[in-house]
Amino acid sequence: MLEVKGINIFRGEAQILWDVSLNIRQGEVVTLLGANGAGKTTFLEAVLGEHHPTQGEILFKGRNIAGNSPFEIARIGIACVPEGRRLFKDMTVYENLEMGAYPKRARAALLDSLAWVYSLFPILEGRKGQIAGTLSGGEQQMLAIGRALMSKPDLLLMDELSLGLSPKITQEIYGTIQNLRREGVTILVIEQNATLALAHSDRGYVLETGRVTLQGSSEDLLNDEHIRKAYLGM
Ligand code: ATP
Q1: Exposed, middle or buried: residue 195 (CB in 10 Å: 0-12, 13-18, 19+)?
Q2: Helices 93-100 and 110-120, packing angle to 10 deg
Q3: C-alpha of residue 11 to centroid of ligand 1, in Å
Q4: Confidence of residue 213 (pLDDT cuts 50, 70, 90)
Q5: What does the pLDDT look like over 89-99, one tens digit per residue?
Q6: Cβ count near 143 (within 10 Å)
Q7: Do residues 66 and 52 touch, judged by C-beta distance below 8 A?
């Protein structure tokens, strides 16, 4: 579904990603691991069209989207749950979800998508009239996921889902990843919490100072000595 081939990304004068390649097949959950500043968010933003590669290709369903605008990329079926959620905090839960359905094909399916999101996160239905900024951290994360789903994405990119959440809420949120994959959504998870992300994914990639240094099945990565020392604190 997504094939990133040897991309270089600069931010200003600085090269942040070097010859990065990563594949995600339809229906997979893939983790991108890396320490602070490794370039994970830059990678995600490149797929979303916010940075354009100076070299390499980003193929989505076989079509090169490197150079497309973020709006075009949302329209063809890639959505994101950004780090820090970036909700419309003064708007209600319902209004945030409605905003997520802005691509044309999503607008037509708004009511169905809403029913789908409420079935995944019943608490959002109970709070649909509540101002988003007054929700708990876990509820806000659910709303950020729900808003992304309202665009009816084929590929969902999720950045640092667990940041600032309690272990219990984090487990609950990760539980919904399994529901989503059963419903055919392909997912890329970006995480510093390696144990959690690998436990919920099929395969993983490790990004270190802008380069992919390791890749494999999540099980192999969980047992890899370097990963255990560098990312699992063992
Ligand atoms: P984190 O988990 O802290 O978000 P990350 O792996 O997602 O880390 P990025 O946010 O992609 O890393 O940052 C990668 C590198 O790009 C860092 O060295 C950072 O200093 C640099 N960087 C981030 N934003 C800019 C910018 N606007 N201009 C230039 N360099 C930047």
Answers
A1: middle
A2: 120
A3: 9
A4: very high
A5: 999 999 999 99
A6: 26
A7: yes
Burial of 210 by CB count in 10 Å (0-12 exposed, 13-18 middle, 19+ buried)?
Answer: buried
What average pLDDT is seen over the chain? 92
Residue to mutate, 11, 192, 211, ligand 1, most ligand atoms under 8 Å from C-beta: 11
Distance (Å, whole) CA 53 – CA 111: 37
Residue 190 near residue 32 (C-beta atoms within 8 A): yes
pLDDT at 234: 61
**Quick check: 156 and 125 in contact, CB under 8 A?**
no
Instruction: Assign 27 to helix, strand or coil.
Output: coil
Q: Could you tell me the two tokens for 180?
A: 């989503």
Type and span of the H or E element at 190: strand 186-191
Which of 16, 18, 20, 209 is the pocket-test mutation for ligand 1 (most atoms within 8 Å of CB)? 16
Reported as a single tens digit per residue, the pLDDT across 141-195 is 999 999 999 999 999 999 988 888 888 888 888 888 888 988 889 999 998 888 8
Which own/partner contact pairs does 130-134 have at CB distance under 8 Å and 24+ positions apart?
A: 130/92, 130/93, 131/89, 131/90, 131/91, 131/92, 132/87, 132/88, 132/89, 132/90, 132/91, 132/92, 132/93, 132/96, 133/87, 133/89, 133/90
Percent of the residues in the chain that have a pLDDT greater than 70, as a whole number: 99
